Amino acid sequence: MQDKTHDAMIITDADAWRSRDLAVLWHPCTQMREHPDTLPLLPIERGEGAWLVGYDGRRYLDAISSWWTNLFGHAEPRIAAAIARQASTLEHVILAGCSHAPAVELAERLLAIAPREAGREPLAKVFYADNGSAGVEVALKMAFHWFRNRGEMQRTKFIALENGYHGETIGALAVGDIPLYRRVYAPLLAEALFAPSPDSYLCEPGESPAQRASRAAAGLRELLERHAGEICALILEPLVQCAGGMRMHDPSYLRLARELCDAHGVFLIADEIAVGFGRTGTLFASEQAGVQPDLLCLSKGLTGGSLPLAAVLTTQRIYDGFLDDSRDRAFLHSHSYTGNPLACAAALAAQGIFESDGVIERNRNTAAVMRELAQPFAEHAHVADVRQTGMIVAFELTKNGDKRTPFDPAARVGLHAYRSAVANGVLLRPLGDILYWMPPYCVDHAALRQLAQVTRIAIDEATACA
Ligand code: PMP
Question: Is there an atom of ligand 1 within 6 Å of 130 CB?
Answer without folding.
Answer: no
